[in-house]
């Protein structure tokens, strides 16, 4: 039985019959006023960069909200056949309509939302998302988030960090040839700062079965504040708490935020960002009737574990062990592990 399960996880045996006329997963990538960063993100999603998959396995739907700096048409012409591009003229300063539009025209069995087009991914993201969905028909697969740089970009920007420093770090690791070395130049994002083994507040690459996406009603369009407010955290919470969901976390993969002067990561003075964050939190409370709290799940960790991620495993483990030693009744370390091969978790 265990051997059969491993074959299903690794894709040697399909868990359900495959409809070859449609991709398995649809990535919805939202872009606004970040052409350089979005180009790297899209490059990281190509079959040439992603390992163990082909163009037939997935599609990438790029939805760009028009700005003064759109993606270069010459670059768009270089994208593989499983990519499509859609330019929208939005009336509200939020990505919610673009996401729902992308999901509405997508064809995959699973809808994977990447709300921020500035987030590059590691080379095993697509393969392991597909593995995760093979585990359970209600699997919600999420990828942890990181910021390029040694500290959160909204803090680093006050010490002079910017696009040029970001670009230099990416060049220093030989990217895209060394995809997993992104871990070497990054830190946990704020939403993932608790580490792997305590509740996180969002994922910037979250893959949801289409029937659950429909039951959730997609993205809630009431989140109309600039940048979408807490809409991505709201999606993460609702998806992870959906009845019967198996939450699968890709421990050895990541999304990496490139600096681009974003709404909450350094585009404005701290005082303006703090005022915006208050407005964002207030809107969430108005919509949901309570303050945001991270969903508590019992995740399954899946995928290979590259050497570069070990320091993040250590950093995630230390506070959990300290809490356990102080309080034996703590449930902070309540998690499951699925092995998909020798030396992998």
TrEMBL record:
Domain named Glycosyltransferase 2-like: residues: 26-168
Region feature Disordered, mapped onto this chain: 321-345
Pfam family, one: Glycos_transf_2
Gene3D superfamilies per UniProt: Spore Coat Polysaccharide Biosynthesis Protein SpsA, Chain A
UniProt protein name: Glycosyltransferase 2-like domain-containing protein
High-level lineage: Bacteria, Pseudomonadati, Pseudomonadota, Gammaproteobacteria, Cellvibrionales
């Amino acid at each position: 039985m265990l051997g059969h399960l491993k074959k299903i996880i690794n894709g040697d045996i399909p868990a359900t019959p495959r409809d070859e006329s449609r991709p398995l997963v649809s990535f919805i990538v939202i872009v606004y006023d970040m052409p350089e960063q979005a180009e790297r993100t899209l490059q990281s999603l190509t079959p040439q960069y992603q390992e163990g998959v082909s163009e037939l396995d997935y599609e990438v739907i790029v939805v760009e909200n028009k700005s003064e700096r759109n993606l270069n048409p010459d670059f768009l012409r270089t994208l593989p056949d499983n990519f499509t591009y859609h330019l929208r003229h939005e009336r509200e300063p939020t990505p919610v309509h673009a996401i729902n539009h992308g999901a509405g025209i997508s064809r995959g069995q699973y809808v994977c939302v990447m709300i921020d087009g500035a987030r590059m991914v590691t080379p095993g993201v697509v393969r392991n998302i597909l593995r995760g969905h093979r585990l359970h028909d209600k699997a919600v697969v999420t990828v942890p988030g990181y910021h390029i740089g040694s500290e959160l970009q909204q803090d680093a920007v006050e010490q002079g960090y910017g696009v040029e420093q970001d670009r230099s770090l990416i060049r220093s690791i030989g990217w895209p040839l060394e995809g997993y070395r992104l871990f070497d130049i990054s830190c946990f994002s704020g939403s993932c700062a608790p580490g792997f083994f305590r509740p996180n507040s969002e994922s910037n690459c979250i893959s949801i079965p289409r029937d659950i996406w429909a039951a959730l009603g997609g993205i809630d369009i009431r989140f109309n504040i600039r940048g979408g407010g807490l809409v991505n955290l709201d999606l993460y919470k609702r998806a992870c708490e959906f009845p019967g969901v198996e939450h699968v976390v890709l421990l050895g993969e990541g999304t990496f935020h490139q600096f681009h002067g974003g709404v909450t990561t350094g585009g404005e003075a701290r005082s303006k960002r703090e005022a915006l964050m208050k407005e964002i939190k207030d809107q969430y409370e108005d919509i949901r009737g309570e303050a945001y709290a991270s969903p508590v799940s019992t995740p399954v960790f899946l995928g290979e574990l590259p050497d570069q991620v070990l320091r993040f495993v250590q950093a995630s483990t230390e506070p959990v062990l300290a809490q356990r030693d102080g309080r034996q009744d703590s449930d902070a370390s309540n998690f499951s592990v699925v092995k998909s091969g020798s030396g992998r978790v």
